[in-house]
Each structure stands twice: as structure tokens, then as C-alpha cells.
Write a structure and sequence with these properties.
70 residues, 3-stranded parallel β-sheet
Length: 70
Amino acid sequence: MEPRRVLVVEDEQNIRDLVCLHLGLEGYECVPVGDGKEAMMLASEKAFDLIILDLMLPGIDGFEVCKELR
């Protein structure tokens, strides 16, 4: 069985690393990104089982990313 893929969108490197560390320990494949633009690009190219999305992002904020991905 393939691991579940999670997109983690967080501009703070330490938080992003911590979330991915814990997801990895639970068997998830974590794809970390630091901004909304990159998140939208990746989400349009690959399928994710879950997206963990920070709301306060540089450039395109999390609300706009969520709206676009829906």
C-alpha cells in the first residue's frame, strides 16, 4: 500500500519541518512548501490525500489558495 501524500503549506521553516517530521513518523509522505503560489502549482500537478494549509502566507494567502483549489 502506498503511503498517503500530504501537502504541508507553511511559510515558517521550523513549523513546516516539525509537521513533516511527525507525519513521516506516522507513515505519511510529506511534501513541504513555503508559499501559496507553489502550493497551487503542486496541487494542480499531483494528487494529495490531505492539504495542511497555513492561512497567513506571503503573497497568496491560505484563504485564496483554498478558494482556488476548491
